[in-house]
Amino acid sequence: MAGNEWINGYLEAILDVGAKLEEGSKNSAWAKLDEGSKNSKGFIDPTKYFVGQVVTGFDETDFHKTWIKVIATRNTRERNNRLENMCWRIWHLARKKKKIEWDDARRLAKRYLKREQGRKDAAADMSEDLSEGEKEKGESSLSDASKENIARINSDLQMWSEENKDKRLYIVLISLHGLVRGENMELGRDSDTGGQVKYVVELARALAATRGVYRVDLLTRQISSPDLDWSYSEPTEMLTCPPSDDNGDGESGGAYIVRIPSGPRDKYIHKESLWPHIPEFVDGALVHITNMAKALGGSTGDPMWPYVIHGHYADACECAAMLAGALGVPMVMTGHSLGRNKLEQLLKQGRLSKEDINRSYHIMRRVEGEELGLDAAEMVVTSTRQEVEEQWGLYDGFDVKLERKLRARSRRGVSCLGRYMPRMAVIPPGMDFSHVTSQDMDTDTDIASLISFDRNQAKRDIPPIWAEVMRFFTNPHKPMILALSRPDPKKNVTTLLKAFGECRPLRELANLTLILGNRDDIETMPISTASLLTTVLKLIDKYDLYGQVAYPKHHRQADVPEIYRLAAKTKGVFINPALVEPFGLTVIEASAYGLPVVATKNGGPVDILKALNNGLLVDPHDDMAIADALLKLVADKALWTECRKNGRKNIHRFSWPEHCKNYLSHAAHCCNRRPSWRPAPHATGRPALPENEPLTDSLRDILDLSIRFSVDVKLNCGTDSVRLSGDPTAANPQQLLDAMYKAAGTTESLLYNGGNAFQRGSVPRSLTIVNSRWNLNDRKRHFVIAVDCFDEFGKFTKNLSDIIQNVMAAAGSDDRGRTGFLFSTGCSLGEVIEALRSCHVEPGEFDGLICGSGSVVCYPWKGIGDDMEYGAHVGYRWPGENARTAVERLAAVEGDDVADDVEACGSHCYAYAVKDGGKVPRVDDLRQRLRMRALRCNLVYTRAGTRLNVVPLFASRDMALRYLSIRWGMDLSKTVVFVGEKGDTDYESLLPGLHKTIILKDAVEHGSEKLVRGSGSYQREDVVPCESPNIVSTELGYATHDISIALDKVGHM
């Protein structure tokens, strides 16, 4: 039974904790195991620590032995009874841990099989094989590159050079979460404000200093919280001034932090809770970018659109994807820390189930943001090849083998059959070396000549942080082992302390300095941080490391260079023992100051040390290996000197100028995607029409003139040919419309039944009458009717007519001419016209129609044809027929559950009728299967789940509104979207944003919400803010009075 003494000790400790709980608590400590890690006062609960030690350190046999012992010694004392019950409960926790591990293994195996099937399907579709030579070239591309010390620029890239100095590039960076400012960064204040903040600020400065780059905007969230410094509420902060030799308008050049309001203005929001506020951030950023592009375009009238939009971390990647999709410009992303990697690590620990992890970290919402980034990105910037293969390889939207094959086909000029994967660019992170001076090269100066610890002597002129660190040491002259990171369990500081404490030669030879953020009172810190710092203090006490370990409470960002200098002066070593290190910026920083390095073998340090050749890699789980590596570098001065020399010689490879040159070289290789349209005249400053001019009346003459145009086309009617010129009314109307179809290159016919009535079917894209006096921006406000009124069979209900009439009536008769109306639906354009006519509403009453789940936009005031520019805009990466065949194969769960709905199809929308009672996959499941086959589409179930629309990636009803805001200058802040309490599967995306949303009670009978996502995915609260002043509901229904009251609430009456 001696082997069970540890279990007994831990159980007794838990009982001791329970005995000290506040009076009045009826539950013992073990009954609180599932309530989290804090007690009623919010302080640390040691129960979790002891239970974790028991569950993870012992197996079921040990628990059984302990339980038998407790049973055998049972008596009437309450403590023994509690011990028996607690032992039984923890045994069940251990069983639960095993079940979680087993379920995780099954989930991974199932997902692996699905990925393999997706790869096989894609390979089968791409039946053309590569030649042997090309196979060898494709397969060796990664292995050859891995032999390089740093990332190799592919042979088809041209390096950025001085020849590009005359370019005027506008680059947008996005880093949404954390506290971002240019000076006195509060790194380590919380888990959201870390190395990423420093990285993006320095990247913005470095890009702005690169020849050819005119302006860089770093977009982040504006925060006006009284708990934070006022600088985070400033709309704009200049990082760098434009160069003195700038040839353009120097006032607008340089690098800036631009803060966009989104969500509660007076509240700091952690990254896990930011997701519902992303659409509002995107809308605000869209306004800024559009205005800046026009300003930078100057008198030429051509906006200077962003060269790239670069998102950092999952939340900003989703923002960048939406912005790039709305603007039609290239998108770049950097994951920094990846959600799937974190999910797999947490599941391997076995302490939390997937549901618990998702509830705590909103991890599935984060993963979906990263997947959406992969869908939209032209390029993914990574720091290592290991990150590409082992981390991005976990995602549905990226497969190393399939990407290699697609790249080889693209290089040969062979069609990829609508499949796409982003370009992975391995670019080492940069660093600002401005703080590194020539004095840092000098290590011969004795440390004793710089510092004095004789209390009787006058204080020397040394950096304050030196004195703060040195006060911990009994002998400050010994070499210093330095670890610098935020207090995060992933940084693995506890293993480092164990390695130091258990290696006596290392303790005798060196001191250890731990810089772990800033702290005041550990008990008031977040539980994970407090638990780690408490463990650090316990380990120092356990190994009696007093006088040998420094752990200062505070340091400023400006102190970091001095800390590196102190370690170098003592001929010390820097160590990064993180479990996984995505970048390894601290490794580069330490190397710049001449410190040899010991670093984790997992992540960025692998490539960094290959390039610098100035240190050793270790297994972060092996404390003996860590101690041996540190001892080797500290004890062998010849090796120490060689590593220092190599690091200083090669450090230029990680300078910001080198990073920016590689970055721009890769970005130049991205598709030079730019908007195919120009903003409407009024959007660029044309005066609006007079306030008192009723626009509805002003359009009447234009519409009357719509038939007075000349037609010079050849009409083919059977065997007869007729050539018309002049007045087209002399011809049969049906013949005229058919001829216009053929002239437009379409084979479908528009059925004309007299007057202005159109029957169901497609409409000619060329049937447009351009009115130079009119655009959407002339309206004072816009009402968007997006209520999905369908019955169980997918037919429009009579509620639609009442809603349209009531919304128009709520606009007010006096203000009717200044209010524009749009209709948004998942139905086809022909079905919309028919439905409006059945409601006794002419299409001309609407300024715009958004049809086919956002795949079609048309303007009845210009004609019935769809917007060809919008079609070209959303058609980017549209897989077309390749998506059609894949969806037909994947959407039918049982036989013929889905079938082509030919009448509802369009050039950018494939519609499928869902069989009554048919089983079809949910949107998230079907999208996952398409992603595994490198097909990027947007999927929407509409008409109460009786139809599936497959549309381009950037086509959606909410993105169509953003297109209108850019194309026609429609003000989203003065737009009201009317929806029901449920609707199509894209319903949730219509609710948040800069616009106002009014939910009409009892307007929708049947929706498609059950087909959105499964139980293991993210939830609605991750998409729609729980409380937002921009979202209101009517109190009773959708009568005119109810709508007017709701409009008053949102400030639009």
Automatic annotation (TrEMBL):
Keyword Disulfide bond: no
Stretches with biased composition (Basic and acidic residues): 132-147
Positions of the Glycosyl transferase family domain: 475-649
Catalytic activity entry: beta-D-fructose 6-phosphate + UDP-alpha-D-glucose = sucrose 6(F)-phosphate + UDP + H(+)
Entry keyword ATP-binding: no
EC number: 2.4.1.14
Pathway membership: Glycan biosynthesis; sucrose biosynthesis; sucrose from D-fructose 6-phosphate and UDP-alpha-D-glucose: step 1/2
Region (Disordered): 123-147
All residue ranges annotated as the Sucrose phosphatase-like domain in the record: 813-1003
GO MF annotation list: sucrose-phosphate synthase activity
One GO-annotated biological process of the protein: sucrose biosynthetic process
Domain Sucrose synthase first GT-B per the UniProt entry, residue ranges: 170-434
Pfam families: Glycos_transf_1, GT-B_Sucrose_synth, S6PP
The protein's name in its UniProt record: Sucrose-phosphate synthase
